[in-house]
Amino acid sequence: MLAKQLERLRKQKNKTKKEIAEYLKLHETTYGKYELGNREPDSKTLCMLADYFEVTVDKLLGHSPFNDSQLENIRKNLSILRSEIDEVAARELGLDDTISLIEEIAYGDYSPSYDDLIEIANECGGTVEELLEPYKTEKPAPENGSGLDDGLISAIRAVPENKRAEAANYLRYLAEQSET
User: Fold this and answer.
1) Rounded to whole angstroms, how far apart are CA atoms 140 and 103?
2) Is 125 left (phi over 0), alpha (psi -120 to 50) or beta?
3) What's the predicted TM-score (pTM) here?
4) H/E element holding 35?
5) pLDDT in tens, 22-51
6) Residue 3 in 3-state DSSP?
7) Do the Cβ atoms of 135 and 77 come closer than 8 Å?
8) Are 10 and 28 in contact (CB under 8 A)?
9) Domain extents for the chain?
């Protein structure tokens, strides 16, 4: 879990292994072994990594605040959400990192924090509560997978990045209203 988390956090910060190793005052191959899971950092290095990535040591180690039942609900709901995401539309909206996070959680490769669920909910236009709900039934996906045509995607691209999910939801709402 630590290895995947280190790699994910490093990529989020657009840093190289060499840059992280220099910060830690380690050889690049030593840090590389942390990301491969071939070596474990000592407690001092774990604290330095947590400070560098601005996360808790618990998050680095993959500890989740959710119980097994909640994790199962989250994974099932994210699996459904992932199947509903249209690849092209998601790329156009700049959701590549969010999709990767959804996949890692849904496939059990990563234990989410509340912040992770907030990020996913904000980007995908839902709520954390919806992600925690017991799995019910699969929601039917719109015909083209996203409910967005090229004109809507262009309109959403013009919206500031931190407001895109909200804009996408509003445009979907308008599209549904015009169909009725």
Assistant:
1) 19
2) left
3) 0.56
4) helix 28-36
5) 999 999 999 999 999 999 999 999 999 999
6) helix
7) yes
8) no
9) 2-61, 68-179
